[in-house]
Write a sequence for this structure.
């Protein structure tokens, strides 16, 4: 099977189908947290990007106060959203300032591992709860290289698609990071039978 091109991938994520799958993931995050209804919440998204993966679903919810941090400003225009351009290695927030910290598809890009560890500790420090999403090691379609059954390929060969190094850890490795001590880990098929995510969460009872 030939992997889809980047152009196909970019077009796909603009379709209503992709919004459907993102909505499924958004609903899962809400369920893990215990629901957002009738709650005044402060939520931080680390690596918020364009906001289309999560923040934009709540543009009419004045009960939620969003803060997003990223190295790039995508110009999110949303009344309940505040953006800070910064590196998540040192977050300018008080301990446990946010009810929930989320991050979708960021942590697998953070290198070296020492920096990744610092960011994870910062997430744990500023959040009373957190839900992190990274690609699972068993995903059929690797979402960055768009490769099918990428685990079986020789990655020492010249790659058709150039990309930054990726952190692909097994399910039991992520909780070994200091900031993820005591976290729960579960797999979630973001796109059934094709793209599998790993959900790392800590939500106090």
């Amino acid at each position: 099977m030939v992997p889809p091109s980047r152009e196909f991938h970019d077009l796909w994520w603009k379709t209503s189908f992709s919004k459907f799958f993102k909505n499924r993931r958004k609903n899962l995050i809400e369920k893990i947290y215990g629901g957002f209804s009738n709650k005044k919440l402060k939520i931080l998204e680390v690596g918020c990007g364009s906001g289309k993966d999560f923040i934009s679903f709540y543009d009419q919810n004045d009960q939620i106060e969003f803060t997003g941090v990223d190295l790039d400003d995508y110009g999110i225009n949303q009344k309940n959203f505040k953006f800070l351009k910064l590196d998540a290695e040192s977050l300018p927030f008080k301990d446990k300032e946010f009810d929930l910290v989320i991050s979708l598809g960021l942590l697998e890009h953070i290198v070296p591992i020492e920096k990744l560890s610092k960011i994870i500790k910062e997430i744990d420090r500023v959040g009373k709860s957190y839900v992190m999403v990274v690609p699972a090691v068993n995903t059929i379609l690797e979402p960055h290289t768009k490769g099918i059954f990428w685990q079986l390929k020789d990655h020492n060969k010249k790659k058709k698609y150039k990309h930054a190094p990726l952190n692909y850890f097994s399910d039991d490795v992520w909780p070994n990071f200091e900031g993820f001590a005591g976290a729960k880990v579960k797999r979630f098929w973001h796109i059934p039978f094709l793209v599998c995510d790993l959900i790392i969460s800590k939500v106090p009872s």
Remarks:
- The two ends are 45 Å apart (CA to CA).
- Residues 1-6 have pLDDT under 50 and may be disordered.
- Residues 3 and 146 are 6 Å apart (CA to CA).
- DSSP finds three helices and nine strands in the chain.
